[in-house]
Every structure is written in structure tokens, then in C-alpha cells.
């Protein structure tokens, strides 16, 4: 799924804006925000049903951009922003879950139920899949997180990770094979994962 971007926000001068942000230019940050906040908000909203969390994550994303613009190393700015936003969303969810585990439970009225995507993403981070992901090498894990969890295309993932597209495809295929083996070790089944080939 490609990011939704406003018309005319191609990103040809995004890198120049980011360099200005790295030098402390608040106007450049404002332009970058105006150019990218809309599609980032849309994508975050697809992953999280709570508008307050989405607003908080979007704000945290641009605070991170302000603080770490110097760390950007030539990858496509939109992909880099999405990786930051997706990681902020995961971090926020983890903090919320820790808080909920320590809070006194209230009766559930059915409102605010997590979306199907939120339940899947939580399983990816905390269930058997999360444990299997942690067993992969960092380069394989990063590719899977970028392409599967963060929803980046192969091209966006290549830009965000600073590696060629062919390397993304190769690592993704290898990561899926290793993940399948790890999941079978964690939760053996009578049938192979994914059915018969």
C-alpha cells in the first residue's frame, strides 16, 4: 500500500527541507509537516482506532524528526517518516498496554473495541510471531517489519533501510522461511503453516 500524499508533494526537495531542519530551521519543519502530516495521519488512523493516540503519535513523529534530522542518510523522506511514525505507534501501544496491566479494570461496555488490524498488529508484536521475529537476525527482522508491519512497498523499504530493492526481496523471502520454521518450533501443528503446497 503506497502512502497517500497531497497533490504536488512529490518529495524532490524533501531532503533539502530535512537538511534545513537539521540546521534548526523551524519554517522547514513546518513545510515538511504540511506536506506529510495528512497522509501520515490517514495511515496511522488505519492502524489505530483511537484519534487521540493518532494525534499523539503524529506529534511525536515530528518531534523525532526535529531531534534526529541529522541522522537521515539519503533514504526517501516519506518512507523514513513512516518508519518513525509506525515505530512511535508501536511504542505508544506498548506503553498503553503496560499501563492497562497495572490499572484497575473497569467493566467493558463494548465501546472502543480494537480494530481487526490492531489485534493482528498486537499479535505480531507480542504473540508467537513477535517471539519468532525476535529470533531473526536484525537485517531480516528490519525488512519484515518494514514490509509487513509498517506496510512499506519494496521500494519504500529499500529507501528507508538504505539497501537495494533486490536485497529487500531476498531478505524478505529468507525472513519468511526462517519465521515459518521458528513458528513451527514455537507452536507445532499437525498441518504445516499455510496449508499444503
TrEMBL record:
Biological process according to GO: DNA-templated transcription initiation
One matching Pfam family: Sigma70_r4_2
Residue intervals of the RNA polymerase sigma-70 region domain: 32-98
Gene3D superfamilies: 1.10.1740.10, Winged helix-like DNA-binding domain superfamily/Winged helix DNA-binding domain
Molecular function via GO: DNA binding; sigma factor activity
SUPFAM superfamilies for the chain: Sigma2 domain of RNA polymerase sigma factors, Sigma3 and sigma4 domains of RNA polymerase sigma factors
Keywords of this entry: Sigma factor, Transcription, Transcription regulation
PANTHER family attached to this UniProt entry: RNA POLYMERASE ECF-TYPE SIGMA FACTO, RNA POLYMERASE SIGMA-70 FACTOR ECF SUBFAMILY
Protein name: RNA polymerase sigma24 factor
Species of origin: Streptomyces uncialis
